[in-house]
Amino acid sequence: MAGNLSIDLAVPFPSRSEAEIAHGSLSVDTEPKRGGGNKTMEVKDTVLNVHFEAPEARILRVSVNSFFEHLSLVVKTMEQFGPPRNRDGPVL
Fold it and tell me: How many domains does the chain contain in total?
């Protein structure tokens, strides 16, 4: 998207498994088409990398704020339930 404003975020997690859980939870929320914004996410090691693009600062701000609200909920939920475990029981 040429001419758009953009921001990149790197969100560290204690483990790759937790970064993947956050990615899966946050991937459900796609950007509305009418706003013209775009969000892409990927996990590298223990970091969730997020790239936002939008044609206007207002749209970018709303998108990033919404992401942080959802991220906060995901992190609080993971803290409440503890670290992920595999099927045999040990912490991942």
Answer: 1
